[in-house]
Write a structure and sequence with these properties.
Blueprint lengths: L12 E2 L7 E6 L6 E10 L3 E6 L8 E8 L2 E16 L2 E10 L2 H22 L3 H4 L13 H7 L1
């Protein structure tokens, strides 16, 4: 199996199945715009990994639309950096080409808070890390968060 170097500039956070929402890729073509449904796997300030049930060419420019627990993307420009076929589904690596400064800042803060929390969990300080002011709170499904809500 071919290995791929991780060249990410931004930390990516996982999106769990119970939080993930369907999204739509809009792909321009000579025949007209093609829409491709997809599901977010992970997300960062620089891009995302998604799962699609339709093949898409690498390097294609796309626009994506999604709303997921307070994160809203409308007509965000991206390019498909890579694709991998797996059992009739397709993993796509998207690189954002144009997102607002505010969304970029928010996604980066979410990743920082997520990994800070992971570190506290490893140190046995999870209860101190989990709080509603965390920028990852709306997407968090960690056991400690669920216990705190009860």
């Amino acid at each position: 199996m071919e290995k791929f170097a991780d060249r990410r500039k931004w930390q990516r956070v996982p999106i769990t199945a119970n939080v993930a929402k369907p999204m739509v890729l809009q792909i321009p073509s000579p025949e007209g715009e093609r829409t491709v449904p997809a599901i977010v796997i992970n997300l960062s300030a620089g891009g995302m990994c998604i799962l699609s049930f339709l093949p898409v060419e690498t390097k294609e420019s796309i626009k994506l639309n999604m709303e997921m627990n307070g994160i809203k993307m409308e007509n965000v420009e991206a390019r498909i950096a890579w694709t991998r076929e797996k059992s009739g589904t397709y993993l796509l690596g998207l690189e954002f080409c144009g997102i607002s400064r505010g969304l970029h800042k928010r996604l980066n803060a979410m990743a920082e808070d997520y990994f800070e929390c992971e570190e506290r969990i490893l140190k046995g300080q999870a209860y101190e890390a989990c709080h509603p002011d965390c920028s990852f709170w709306s997407l968090c499904t960690k056991t400690i968060r669920v216990k705190r809500q009860s």
